[in-house]
Design goal:
Length: 346
């Protein structure tokens, strides 16, 4: 590692509040308490200063990069319905610790584009994971700490399980999120099914049309933000900053395919069959890992991490953040950044 704790401000971000070193942040428990009392509000940063583009695999990937060019790499992966701005406050904290932070738009989001109009707009889990492997190859990154939530957790989990040599350490919000298609055919408890209402909506033609309609898509995504992060006091500008990423021309196709594929209502591609077969076996993750549960996230599995503990065989820690909802990195950036640093030090 190079020169951690030697940076006193965020690198590569637009004007706003300077990020403090992690050494000066509260402990995880007190940081969560601060978030409950209002720390989830925008911290003064408005956006990443500029985005880069790189051709990688099937995509021209748009990504933000923050921190020293030769620092140890952290790749932060967002979920749905979010974008790279879930990490707008995490990135400067990690940059201040000497990390090179890469935050890509997943396929169908923001400035990421398919290189060919003929490519099937596939959002099955292994395809998205291979996008990140291709990104790492394009940027000549042999190994990185992978950290994410929602779709991003699933993607990071898959890389850690199938390509552990590419994942130095893992931070996964929600734990082990690798999709098992057979298990997904079984009904959940009614309360859990209720939280997944949009998954079933997207299985219908009405849901597809809503995703393709700009206004309905915007309002539906805002409703999801409001319901899955009930304690996060974000403002309209914070949502609109991310909502710009929903204007990607492939957004609707990617979102609809992702949720239909998970319910076995849409086919994937044969080129990914060998990866999905391995993932169906629920492979154990052996890289150092920290899992984070958000107490107020309706998708958090009961049991304080016990339901997936057996899927992690390496150095491990589990943390539950009180009063935090689904968009954990943006609601509790200090806790998330601390987890990255701690996982990297295992």
């Amino acid at each position: 590692m190079i020169g951690r704790r030697t940076f006193s401000k965020a690198l590569g971000l637009s004007t706003g509040t300077a990020a403090a070193s992690l050494a000066g942040l509260a402990t995880p428990s007190t940081a969560s308490a601060a978030a409950r009392s209002g720390a989830g509000k925008p911290a003064g940063l408005t956006s990443f200063e500029s985005l880069k583009q790189v051709k990688a695999g099937l995509l021209d990937i748009g990504y933000a990069e923050v921190g020293p060019a030769h620092g140890p790499v952290v790749i932060c992966l967002h979920g749905w319905p979010y974008d790279i701005h879930s990490f707008v406050d995490v990135a400067p904290l990690l940059a201040a610790e000497g990390y090179r932070v890469i935050v890509p738009h997943l396929r169908g989001h923001g400035t990421t584009r398919f290189l060919s109009a003929l490519t099937f707009r596939n959002a099955q889990q292994s395809a998205i994971a291979l996008d990140i492997i291709a990104l790492m190859d394009a940027l000549t990154i042999e190994s990185a700490v992978l950290a994410g939530f929602d779709w991003g957790s699933r993607t990071a989990d898959i890389i850690a399980a199938l390509w552990p040599e590419r994942c130095k350490a893992l931070v996964s919000v929600g734990g082990y999120l690798i999709t098992n298609l057979a298990a997904n055919l079984e009904p959940l408890a009614p309360a859990a099914e209720h939280a997944w209402w949009y998954q079933y909506y997207f299985a219908t033609e009405r849901g597809r049309l809503a995703m393709e309609d700009r206004t309905k898509r915007h309002d539906l995504n805002r409703l999801v933000w409001d319901t899955v992060s009930p304690t996060w006091d974000f403002d309209d500008a914070t949502f609109e900053r991310t909502a710009a990423s929903f204007e990607n021309p492939d957004y609707a196709d990617i979102v609809i395919h992702n949720y239909r594929w998970r319910l076995s209502l849409a086919a994937g591609e044969r080129r990914y069959d060998r990866f999905e077969k391995r993932l169906a076996a629920r492979p154990v993750i052996e890289v150092p890992a920290i899992t984070l549960d958000a107490e107020r996230d309706p998708f958090t599995a009961p049991g304080d991490g016990s339901s997936y503990r057996d899927r992690f065989a390496g150095a491990y820690d589990h943390r539950t953040l009180k009063g935090i909802g689904h968009n954990l990195p943006q609601e509790a950036p200090a806790d998330f950044a601390r987890a990255v640093v701690d996982a990297d030090r295992f």
